[in-house]
Design a protein that fits this description.
418 residues; Rossmann fold; alpha/beta; 3 domains; 35% helix; globular; 9-stranded mixed β-sheet; nucleotide binding; 20% strand
Length: 418
């Protein structure tokens, strides 16, 4: 199988790397405007110079030269790139979000159906042992129907500073709102677990902490010239030098020596003071969801956590499910009649699996390749299933901005008819 890579950043290299290393696909072309990244991809995959492109237009002028494309570029670029790929008949593995604009998401879905092409969205959480086990417990009916869910996305204080304050996803106009970029994953998982479309959504949140008024006294624009850096946990040297060679330091530069990283901090965006960046996305947000089957959900998205993890509590008629994906552990409890009788409980260890996102990255890539080989279109993360999560995330941001409760069907109708 021949695959072309569009966007040779961290996510694109992960998916293409798994496909290549598994000997299931050849990466025959790369499109990447940054020369350093383009060269690294070309070297890893053995891509000849004539199949290395610094812009998407030159690549598409070649026509359909592969079986599929992996598109892992910036959020705002997805729509134009995907629509052109579909016009050429490409099947696509598409990094989330599909698009920051839900109308564009719907148009991509319609175009894929019209052209008979597969678009599989990188909702990797559906492919993890952790969430698959929770879904299996819910669907078994052993605890009765789901009544309500509490779900937390714990972004991690250093992750939000790296990606959403200093990094590529710091501004809504350059990428997308935090709840869309980071948590369309979670909207997708919640809709999947509940087994229903959303009915109403309300949301509240703000950019509360990463603001100039919270900067330490005597601090400056960049960490390497800052007198207050020694007492600041966000000092870029503390953040990146100890993890050279791995994420998030690997995002800064291909040169992962101390000298290379220091140079990147001197010249690039990741050396900036987190209190003096041009970021505008939320650093905390809550979303309340009522689904059409009457299940209610409270979702909390926060950058003020020590670990990067997701924690969940599913409350059912006859018991509850608690889980922490950082521990790969799920606790299933059946209710007792009173406070002194024993209750039935079991612990499920979902186990460690290869790759990022609890093994979801690998399993997603395998699913994409398997769908291609079998000429099938029943992926658990197809465009048809994935659009719902993006409409939900958009509704959440609309609610946060306007202070109104959003009726999801009304929103969908407006998007379809606009």
């Amino acid at each position: 199988m021949k695959i072309a890579l569009v966007g040779a950043g961290q996510r694109g290299m992960i998916y293409s790397g798994y496909a290549y290393d598994s000997n299931k696909a050849d990466i025959v072309a790369v499109v990447e405007p940054k020369e350093e990244r383009r060269a690294a991809a070309a070297e890893k995959f053995g891509i000849p110079s004539e199949m290395q492109f610094n812009n998407i237009e030159d690549f598409y002028q070649k026509g359909r030269i592969a079986d599929a494309v992996i598109i892992a570029t910036m959020d705002q670029d997805h729509y134009q790139q995907v629509m052109a790929a579909l016009e050429l008949g490409y099947d696509i593995l598409l990094e989330k979000p599909i698009s920051p604009d839900p109308k564009e998401c719907l148009m991509i879905q319609d175009k894929a159906n019209q052209k008979g092409c597969k678009v599989i969205v990188c909702h990797v959480l559906r492919y993890t042992n952790f969430f698959a086990a929770i879904k299996e417990i819910i669907d078994s009916g052993e605890l009765g129907k789901v009544i309500t869910i509490q779900h937390n996305e714990n972004v991690g204080n250093y992750h939000i500073a790296h990606s959403f304050v200093r990094g590529n996803w710091r501004r809504s106009d350059l990428s997308s709102p935090l709840v869309m970029q980071k948590s369309c994953h979670d909207m997708d998982i919640l809709a999947w677990l509940v087994g229903s479309e959303a009915k109403k959504i309300a949301s509240f949140g703000s950019l509360k902490y990463f603001r100039e008024e919270n900067a330490p006294k005597g601090s400056s624009e960049r960490c390497l010239t800052c007198k207050a850096a020694g007492d600041c946990r966000f000092d870029a040297r503390k953040v990146y030098l100890p993890v050279a060679g791995s994420w998030p330091a690997a995002v800064l530069t291909q040169d992962q020596t101390e000298e290379g990283i220091i140079k990147a901090l001197e010249e690039g965006p990741y050396g900036r003071c987190v209190y003096r960046c041009d970021n505008d996305v939320c650093d905390n947000q809550v979303v309340l969801i009522e689904f059409k089957n009457d299940v209610t959900v409270s979702f909390n998205l926060s950058g003020f956590t020590n670990k990067i993890s997701r924690t969940i509590k599913v409350m059912c008629e006859n018991g509850e499910i608690r889980g922490d994906d950082s521990l790969n552990q799920i606790e299933v409890t059946k209710f007792a009649s009173n406070a002194i009788d024993g209750f039935e409980q079991r612990i499920i260890h979902t186990g460690l699996t290869q790759g990022g996102h609890g093994g979801g990255d690998v399993a997603l890539t395998d699913d994409f390749i398997n769908q291609m080989e079998a000429h099938s279109n029943n992926s658990r993360s197809s465009i048809t299933q994935s659009v719902e999560s993006h409409v939900m995330a958009y509704a959440a941001e609309q609610s946060r901005m306007t202070g109104k409760i959003i009726d999801v069907d009304t929103l969908k109708s407006r998007l379809r008819n606009s």
